[in-house]
Design brief:
By secondary structure, the protein is mainly beta. The chain has one domain. The protein has three helices and 15 strands. The strands form two sheets. Strands 3, 4, 5, 7, 8, 9, 10, 11, 13 and 14 form a ten-stranded mixed beta sheet that branches. It has a five-stranded mixed beta sheet with strand order 6-2-12-1-15, with no helix packed on it. Strand 4 and strand 5 form a beta hairpin. The longest helix is centred in the C-terminal third of the chain and has 12 residues. The radius of gyration is 20 Å and the shape is elongated. About 30% of the residues are buried.
């Protein structure tokens, strides 16, 4: 549900596996970052309003990887691989160790790497496809619970800027990070939207059926932007 930062490849090695490994295992992880957002200050010392998210969950139906690969002096060849699940997989994006699954890749140099995350409403059944909750604190210090609920199909696309070399002796992790602060970055969502929001049992519910105008602003941030946009691509091939 956010505009975002970063695809990070890191590697780890088990010495007992080096002689027998022919492929590298690529683990795919999702993580939400920057869970607190300040709307600014009335003065240098007084915060006008703060959002702090404590729960971020998403159902994932499919992970699709495409790239170009070269081995030695051979010509680059395009390929595609997928991670699929029976139904879908519920991911806790505030759990740094949450793993969607692994993709086996041959050693070599990879370019034009794109990962697509697909979330299908039918797989979530009666649960939200995407759920984000926390608290909104207004300028007077009043704390109000808040929840964002999305019940539509979602598709996120991450494109890596740089090439990556995979070693047959290493396993890798691909961390896709969702920057929650990017919700507000373009200024279209204001603290006034939260101050005037309708409460349901004392809670700000943002969905298609509740505070619909605010929901549209949030959803527009997703539909118009590649959620996993890469300003930088880091290669962290540190053995451990």
């Amino acid at each position: 549900m956010v505009a975002a930062t970063g695809m990070i490849f890191s590697s780890c090695q088990n010495d007992s596996d080096i002689s027998s490994k022919t492929d590298s295992s690529l683990g795919v992880q999702l993580q939400a970052v920057n869970n607190t957002y300040s709307f600014g200050s009335n003065t240098k010392a007084v915060t006008a309003g703060t959002l702090k998210w404590d729960t971020c969950q998403m159902y994932v139906s499919r992970v699709h990887l495409s790239a170009k690969q070269s081995q030695g002096d051979s010509i680059h060849s395009s390929f595609e691989k997928e991670l699929t699940f029976k139904g879908s997989k519920l991911v806790d994006l505030f759990n740094a160790s949450s793993l969607l699954g692994n993709i086996d890749l041959q050693p070599g140099i990879y370019d034009k790497i794109t990962i697509q995350i697909q979330s299908n409403k039918k797989d979530a059944v009666n649960s939200p496809i995407f759920y984000l909750s926390g608290n909104y604190t207004n300028a007077s210090g009043t704390i109000t619970p808040i929840a964002l609920i999305v019940n539509k199909d979602l598709k996120f696309i991450a494109t890596a800027k740089d090439s990556v070399q995979l070693n047959s002796a290493d396993d890798y992790t691909n961390m896709l990070q969702l920057d929650l602060s990017e919700f507000m970055s373009n200024g279209n969502i204001l603290k006034l939207d939260f101050d005037k929001a309708t409460l349901t049992n004392g809670k700000i519910i943002i969905s298609e059926d509740s505070n619909a105008d605010l929901y549209k602003k949030f959803y527009r941030r997703v539909s118009l932007i590649n959620a996993f946009k890469h300003a930088a691509f880091k290669k962290l091939n540190n053995k451990h």
